[in-house]
């Protein structure tokens, strides 16, 4: 079934015609002119790899490990699944299928607050997956607190606070389509709390039901005090997702964050922001090893994964590629995408003369911007 799908782009091309227009536009779209969306992918191509030769690469290891608070995490490959909403629009088994694939890969899956499968049902389906829970802060803090409690009760190992979405960005296609969840789906994590939190409001052409939902319910006043409150409230380590500056990374660590994800929300929030891989070196330097730093956005190949590791990231998280795999083949399709990325990473490691992620991260000037060579002329 997947033999002709040799790279993530192949999977995407196979997936897109299978999706209804409204769903396809929702998954693909970015904010405003989609400059940040495009930059996330194109920026990786501007970094070059300086390979070493005559290194014994007959045996390599792609495994990665790190600590956050009292938890020690180890994954066979430094590729995890980023939080993205509404997996059941891609495949009826939705987030359960994604969790099964994460379990087979023994990697981290970050479940979105806005999932179409409850966190309890995802946990039951997850097998060997490592589950983290992504959190938006609602105006009603009791809602937020109950989500944290449920995540802890169901074996999730971290809370991932999204900090770049006090409101949702303007996604033009969603507004043109008057985006709504299909009638048989809802925000599954809220049906036990308040029915109004489980449903999108009705909208007409010119706005998005999801945008209106966030406008009505998300806390636009979220600030550093809220992060400190969350760290004090949560029995799980808190990872801050959406950091795009070194000084904000420092402040997150000082506020008690156990990890940082360099993220611009897949280009769906502020347009004309830098790409995440461009920002990664600044954040790495600012954090200076105090907590793990992760990155998402624009990763489409194992070569990209390698570059992110060489620039210091502990792991990358992928979002849209998982949705393409889910669309094409459910859980097996997601596994195929993860297998592609792992295989491509192995090739890049061998051809660059490196046998472990640790070696990649310790190799000086292994990955450089293309301007590096102009400076040598």
| Percentage of residues in strands | 5-15%
Number of strands: 12
The whole-number mean of residue pLDDT values reads 94
Series of secondary-structure elements, N-terminal to C-terminal: HHHEEEEHEHEHEHHHEHEHEHEHHEH
Strand order of the largest sheet: 4-11-10-9-8-7-6-5
In DSSP terms (H or I, runs of 4 or more residues), the helix count works out at 15
Major beta sheet summary: 8 strands, parallel
The helicity comes to: 40-55%
Output the radius of gyration: 20 Å
The outline comes out as globular
Q: What's the end-to-end separation, in Å?
A: 49 Å
Poorly predicted regions: none
Structural class: alpha/beta
Binding site for glyoxylate: 26, 136, 171, 263, 265, 268
Cofactor: FMN
InterPro entries: Aldolase_TIM, Alpha-hydoxy_acid_DH_FMN, FMN-dep_DH, FMN_HAD, FMN_hydac_DH_AS
Active site: 265
What features would you describe in this structure?
The protein is α/β, with parallel strands linked by helices and 377 residues long. The chain has 15 helices and twelve strands. It has an eight-stranded parallel beta sheet. The longest helix has 33 residues, at 320-352. FMN binds at residues 83-85, 112, 134, 162, 241, 296-300, 319-320. Residues 1-370 form the FMN hydroxy acid dehydrogenase domain. One of its GO terms (biological process) is fatty acid alpha-oxidation.
């Amino acid at each position: 079934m997947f033999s002709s799908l040799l790279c993530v782009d192949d999977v995407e091309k196979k997936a897109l015609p299978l999706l209804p227009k409204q769903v396809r536009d929702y998954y693909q779209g970015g904010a405003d002119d989609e400059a940040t969306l495009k930059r996330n992918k194109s920026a990786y191509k501007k970094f070059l790899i300086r390979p070493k030769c005559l290194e014994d690469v007959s045996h390599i290891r792609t495994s990665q490990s790190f600590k956050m608070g009292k938890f020690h995490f180890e994954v066979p490959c430094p590729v995890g699944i980023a939080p993205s909403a509404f997996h059941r629009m891609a495949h009826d088994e939705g987030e359960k299928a994604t969790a099964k694939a994460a379990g087979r890969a023994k990697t981290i899956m970050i479940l979105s607050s806005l999932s179409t499968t409850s966190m309890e049902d995802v946990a039951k389906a997850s097998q060997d997956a490592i589950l983290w829970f992504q959190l938006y802060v609602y105006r009603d803090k009791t809602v937020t607190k109950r989500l944290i409690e449920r995540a802890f009760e169901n074996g999730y190992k971290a809370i991932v606070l999204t900090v770049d979405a006090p409101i949702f960005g303007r996604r033009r296609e969603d507004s043109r389509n008057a985006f709504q969840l299909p009638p048989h789906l809802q925000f599954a994590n809220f049906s036990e709390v308040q029915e109004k939190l489980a449903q999108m409001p009705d909208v007409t052409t010119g706005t998005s039901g999801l945008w209106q939902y966030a406008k009505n319910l998300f806390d636009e006043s979220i600030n550093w005090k809220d992060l400190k409150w969350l760290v004090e409230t949560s029995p799980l380590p808190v990872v801050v997702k959406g950091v795009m500056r070194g000084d904000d990374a420092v402040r997150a660590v000082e506020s008690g964050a156990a990890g940082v994800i360099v993220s611009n929300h897949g280009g769906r929030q502020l347009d004309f922001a830098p790409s995440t891989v461009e920002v990664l070196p600044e954040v790495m330097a600012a954090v200076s090893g105090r907590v793990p730093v992760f990155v998402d956005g624009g990763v489409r190949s194992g070569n990209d994964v390698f570059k992110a590791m060489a620039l210091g990231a502990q792991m990358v998280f992928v979002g849209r590629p998982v949705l393409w795999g889910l669309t094409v083949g459910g859980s097996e399709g997601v596994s195929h995408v993860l297998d592609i990325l792992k295989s491509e990473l192995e090739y890049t490691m061998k051809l660059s003369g490196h046998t472990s992620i640790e070696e990649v991260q310790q190799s000086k000037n292994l990955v450089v911007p293309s301007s590096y060579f102009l400076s040598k002329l």
